[in-house]
Write a structure and sequence with these properties.
With 95 residues, this protein is mostly helical. It has a domain of 66 residues. Helix content is 56%, strand content 6%. It has 1 helix and 2 strands. Strands 1-2 form a two-stranded antiparallel ribbon. A hairpin with a 6-residue loop joins β1 and β2. The chain is elongated, with a radius of gyration of 33 Å. The N and C termini lie far apart (90 Å).
């Protein structure tokens, strides 16, 4: 239980060491919250960049497809191979 004092609350103060520790803890919490906010902002920016990169990749893939047709392109050396055509499934007649 807290020690009772005859002093009025307005006259009471914590010690300088307690105040310093309290302020330090509060600053640490504020820094952590600020760091989390910065991480969220960076994450948002990276997600936007990622979406832009995917859109650029789709657009360039379409350009390559127009130029070379439906082919596979090796990312290792740029070689092109034909895509194997899959035969259309044959449906049995309904009796």
């Amino acid at each position: 239980m807290a020690k009772k004092s005859t002093k009025k609350a307005a006259e009471l103060k914590i010690t300088a060491e307690e105040l310093e520790k309290l302020q330090g803890l509060q600053q640490t919490i504020a820094n952590a919250v600020n760091n989390l906010a910065n991480i969220e902002i960076a994450k948002h920016e990276l997600l936007q960049d990622h979406a832009s990169m995917k859109a650029a990749m789709r657009a360039f893939s379409e350009e390559l497809q127009e130029k070379y047709g439906e082919v596979n392109i090796s990312l290792a050396d740029g070689s092109i191979t034909e895509v194997e055509a899959k035969p259309a499934p044959v449906m049995a007649p309904v009796e």
